[in-house]
Amino acid sequence: MSTGTSTFIIRWINFLTLLLAVGVLGFGVWMSMHHDSCRKSLTLPVLGLGGVIFLISIIGFLGAWKKNSVLLWIYLVMLFLVLVAILVFTVLAFIITNNGSGHTVNGLKYKEYELRDYSSWFLKQLNSTHNWKKLKSCLVKADDCNNLSKKYKTLKQFKLEKLTPIEAGCCRPPSKCGYPAVNASYYDLSFHPISADKDCKLYKNTKNVRCYSCDSCKAGVAQYMKTEWRVVAIFNLILFAVLSIIYFVGCCARRNASRNRTKV
Q: I need a surface site. Which of 107, 127, 152, 209 has the fewest CB within 10 A?
C-alpha cells in the first residue's frame, strides 16, 4: 500500500473516531448530571471509554497527518493493546455466558429461570449483598413489575404473553409455589405454598418487595445479562475484525513514514 493511501486512510479514520469519542464523552457528561443512581454507575466506564478512544484517535491522526513514525508506533502499540483487550473480554464473555437457560412451564408461554443453572461468576456477583442491593434498587425504580397490570388487562392475556426474564423472575412468585394469580401483579398468598422453596416465602404483593429478593429474580437478571453480553460479544468480534484491518493499514503507514524519514 502506498504512503499516500495508507496515511490518508488512517488520518480520516481517526478523524471520524475523534468525533465518535467527543460524542461518547458528551454522553458520559450527560449521564453524570442525571439524578438516577443506576445510570450514574455507568458514568466512569463511559467517560473512560471516550477518553481512550479520543487519545488513540488523536495520536493516530497526528501521526498520519505529520507522517511521524514515532507517533504511529505509539498508535499501533495502543491499538494492539485494545485488540488484545477486546479478544480477552470476548472470550471470557462467551465462557461466562455458556451456562444457563430457561425452563418451560405448562400453561405458560414464557420460561422461568433458576440461579444454579448459571456460571459461578454470575452466582458470585448476584449473591453479593452489596451488588444485589444496588441492582434491586434499580429494579424497583424501573417500575416494570407495577406496570404489568396496566400492560396486561386480563389474567388470560397475562398468561399467554412472553414475559421478559426479569418480569418472569422478579415480578411474580415461581410457578412451583402454586399461588393463584388474581391479576398480572397480584397473587393470593392465603394459599399454603406447594413448594418449600424459600422464594415462595419471600414473595409479597407489596410494590417495593415483590420477588426482588428471590433467587428467581437473580436468575432473571442473570439471563438478561447473558443475552446482553452475547450481543456485546458478537459486536466485539465485528469490531475486532474492523480494528485488525485498521491496524494493518496503520502498519503500512508507519512503515512508509519510516522509509520516507530514512530517505530524508
A: 107
User: Could you read off the pLDDT of 235-264 as tens digits, one per residue?
Assistant: 888 888 888 888 887 787 777 666 655 554
- Separation of CA 124 from chain center: 17
Residue 114: pLDDT band with limits 50, 70, 90: very high
Other CB atoms closer than 10 Å to residue 123's CB: what's the count? 17
What is the rounded CA–CA span in Å between residue 167 and residue 123?
A: 20
Closest by CA to 211, choosing from 116, 122, 115, 119, is 115
Residue 111's DSSP bridge partners are 104
- Tell me which DSSP letter residue 25 carries: H
The span from the CA of 202 to the CA of 181, in Å, is 16
Looking at the DSSP bridge assignments, the partners of residue 186 are 183
pLDDT for res 264: 47
Q: pLDDT tens digits for 157-192?
A: 887 888 899 999 999 999 999 999 888 889 999 988
Beta strands in 19-158 (DSSP E): 103-104, 111-112
- What single-letter DSSP state applies at residue 112? E
Burial call 220-257: b when 16+ CB within 10 Å, e when fewer: bbbbebbeebeeebeebeeebeebeebeebbbbbbebb
* E-strand stretches of the chain: 103-104, 111-112, 181-183, 186-187
